[in-house]
Amino acid sequence: MIIGGVLPRISKEEIKKVQSAIRKKKTFTVKNLAVLLGCSVPSVRLKLRQWNARSSYNKSGQYYALPDIPQFNEDGLWWHKGAYFSKYGTLKNTVVHLVGASLAGLTGEQIGKLVGLDPRSFLYHFRNTPGIEREKHQGVYVYFSDDQAKRKKQTTNQLEEIALGASISDADAIVILVSLIKHHGFTAEHLAELPEMQAKALFVPAIENYLRQHGLEKKTLHSKR
User: Fold this and answer.
1) How far apart are CA 89 and CA 212, in angstroms?
2) Is the domain of 142 the same as that of 180?
3) Crossing angle for the helix pair 148-165 and 204-213, to the nearest 10 degrees
4) Could you tell me the CATH number of the domain that includes residue 105?
5) Spatial distance between the Cα atoms of 167 and 218, rounded to a whole number of angstroms
């Protein structure tokens, strides 16, 4: 019998049996545990706090695991049958940590791949989250640490990554080529200042990379004519 939502007396032996059962399944819900303990949902939530159980950062946090069950990877993440857990607790805390630990910031797509979720389903809500800031690079939002010293390093690395591996779409390539013909002798820096380049979010590293890949860099000068 439950009085006032208080957990009924359960022997240590019975608790061990319940914990053994949920350890075998690795993850469980409040409803699962309520059945095993034979008590109300409020009483189960009290027990979860006492056990320091971890809740999933997806599926509305309805899945739980005992604290010693998750085998977190190097990013502090663990998955089991569609339930995702983080060493850092909430999804928001997890994103802040991942961004802060990254060498060059992270795009929404990269964050989504790391946490196993569609970034469109959650990143919009994190645009003003303390700990991270976002900025557009190559037309894509990149999330950086809001620690200015760390961010400076991340931004530098991000620009280097763009310069080394940026891919230009056919439409963007046409814009670059037309601009180069119209403004013969412009450097990548000068091309990047053109309104049509800024409208496409084409920045210096990507333009330089494209010109280099296609042997066009020799056709630019170091200054405007």
Assistant:
1) 45
2) no
3) 20
4) 1.10.10.10
5) 20
Kindly state the tokens that stand for 175. 């814009």
Q: Are residues 178 and 214 in the same domain?
A: yes
**Ramachandran bin of 76, using left for φ above 0, alpha for ψ from -120 to 50, beta for the remaining angles:** left
Which residue intervals of the chain are DSSP H helices?
A: 12-25, 30-37, 41-51, 91-101, 108-115, 148-165, 170-182, 188-192, 195-199, 204-213
**53 and 123 housed in the same domain:** no
Per the structure, the complete domain to which residue 38 belongs is given by: 1-70+77-85
Q: How many structural domains are present in the chain?
A: 3
DSSP letter assigned to residue 151: H
Residue 47 lies in a domain: yes
Taking only the tens of pLDDT, the chain with its 225 residues reads 333 444 556 777 888 899 999 999 999 999 999 999 888 899 899 999 999 999 999 999 999 999 999 999 999 999 999 999 999 999 999 999 999 999 999 988 889 989 999 998 999 888 889 999 998 877 788 999 999 999 999 988 887 776 555 556 778 889 889 988 898 888 887 888 899 887 876 766 678 777 877 787 654 443 333
* 109, 146: one domain: yes
Backbone angles phi, psi at 184, to 5 degrees: -55, 130
Q: Are residues 208 and 150 located together in one domain of the fold?
A: no
Query: What is the C-alpha separation between 7 and 100, in angstroms, rounded?
Result: 41
Q: Note if the pTM is more than 0.90.
A: no
Any domain includes 39: yes
